[in-house]
């Protein structure tokens, strides 16, 4: 059957999804697969126009280009660019708002932040062209730059209106871009001075050591260590694949004794994906121990589902679980080979092995009638069930 797709609205994007249906058409388990293709219409995302220069500006620039007048061309080409500012006067600011910017285009966010209902401090900074370089960080917030330190300090912790709820500018600090690390799982013997001395001895004296979290005068045990530069130091990142992930401080009572290692969490999140050496060594030791135990296990041909060998029961012993299987076994003719297989099982001192396909020769298979094949298959199934019962009894007894 051919199905005609409906007309799609102009200016819309669409994708196809398929539905696979199984239909039983008769009593002989014959099935018909029906594939249905359905269009899924999604609205096209709004397109926002970019800033275009005026024709007069481009005409002047191309005229200067034809005359090879580079100085005049540079002056005209940078006419619409923000005012040049020294790097020392560029102060990065941050607005954490992952939910407010979800599925929003930067143009939508800029329109929202430029509305008149914003605080007067924000409007004054915007009209003075002190705010620039807005950038959306997906699932995080808005990054921007302020070209005046006093204005950035005043805008610290100011709340703005954005798509309904208010968003708050993060606390501004002139040194907010300085590199830092967090020390977690610190031993009780490690003091703040011990932390400072360790980094100073390794050529990276910190500018500040303080508790990572303080709430209502209650400090945390974790410590944050700040350094006097924006990039990580060599002691923190000896190589790209081997950053500093743990520190073993010396005991204050005995410098020859190493305390339990504490972990180092970097400002750069990618460094924290490297496993600390102590955890890596423990994982390798556990893997080696498991491999040794697996190699030392008994090479018996009969194993439980977990890989352990199934021990045989004492001769003549019949458990309750095994009796339950025998009670559910249907009666077979007197000449059934089941009795002989059970006797073989009871008299065997080793672990029984279920018959395989190689135990029966092709000529015997041809000579066997349908009843004999059924009896042989039943015996094989019964022995398999016996192995499972023996394994369950072993677990119950242990």
Automatic annotation (TrEMBL):
Residues 284-316, 337-367 are annotated as: Disordered. Residues 294-309, 337-349 have a biased composition (Low complexity). This is Uncharacterized protein.
